[in-house]
Design goal:
Radius of gyration: 18 Å
Shape: globular
Number of strands: 11
Number of domains: 1
Number of helices: 7
Strand content: 25-35%
Structural class: alpha+beta
CATH superfamily: PPM-type phosphatase domain
CATH architecture: 4-Layer Sandwich
């Protein structure tokens, strides 16, 4: 018999110290008559209004797609074993096509796009999906593991063996993303399914956090605070103290 898992989550977003506005969006959604929870971080790109609109629209599109899947499951289709992965992948795909449709509505939105990283939870299982360089980390057994791989031009060159690790770390192209919501009608969506264990912690974040804090600094904050809200606030504060060079978004999930 599987132990009963309870979850807690919290999140926050901040403009940072250098950006004129916040183009990040976060959303934490529960769905009626279900055990389903959706957690999201989106980092908009495309300049000024475009980036902000892209991230805001995407988290709303994602929420609507999952809500539809929950309604269908509760109407008789049920939560089949691969429901989590299929639902999250479909939500990302739906959101991508809807954002592309929105790009033609106004000239200033023509180049808008956004990263997305999301966790979909049902009972004691989660699915993690992403496009772009917003990340998901897992803290388990005092080890912080990056679950997602950045979809950037440099990461692609490294994976293909065209550059080595030293070149990867020193070259200045880390923020040129190769996958995102709004860039292509057929993105390579990555989704991974995991089982929740006590007392694991999961972090969703935009690159405004990871550009300013090391993995060791992040892990220290997650381990020292009992309250997730305190961890969220401290991570954002530390990122700002270390330069705040971009918008900073954090969503935390803990299983207990």
């Amino acid at each position: 018999m599987t132990d009963q898992i309870t979850i807690k989550y919290a999140g926050g977003t901040d403009r940072g110290k250098l950006r004129e506005q916040n183009e990040d969006s976060i959303l934490m959604s529960e769905f009626e008559h279900s055990d389903v929870v959706l957690l999201q971080v989106a980092d908009g790109v495309g300049g000024h209004e475009g980036g902000e609109v892209a991230s805001n629209l995407t988290v709303a599109f994602m929420q609507a797609s999952v809500a539809k899947a929950v309604l269908l499951a509760n109407s008789g289709a049920g939560y089949v074993p691969d429901w989590l992965e299929k639902t999250l992948r479909q939500a990302i795909s739906d959101s991508n096509l809807q954002l592309i449709e929105q790009q033609s509505t106004r000239l200033e939105l023509n180049n808008m796009a956004t990263t997305i990283v999301a966790i979909l939870i049902h009972k004691n299982e989660i699915a993690v999906g992403h496009l772009g360089d917003s990340r998901c980390y897992q803290l388990s057994d005092q080890k912080l593991l990056q679950l997602t791989e950045d979809h950037t031009a440099l990461q692609k060159l490294l994976n293909e063996g065209k550059i080595n690790q030293q070149e990867y770390e020193t070259m200045p192209m880390h923020h040129i993303i190769s996958q995102a919501i709004g860039l292509s009608r057929s993105p390579d969506i990555e989704v991974e399914k995991l089982t929740l264990n006590k007392p694991d912690c999961y972090l969703l974040c935009s690159d405004g956090l990871t550009d300013c804090l090391s993995d060791a600094q992040i892990q220290h904050v997650l381990e020292k605070n009992d309250q997730l809200e305190n961890s969220v606030d401290e991570l954002i504060t530390l990122a700002n103290d270390n330069g705040g060079i971009d918008n900073i978004s954090v969503v935390l999930l803990r299983s207990e």
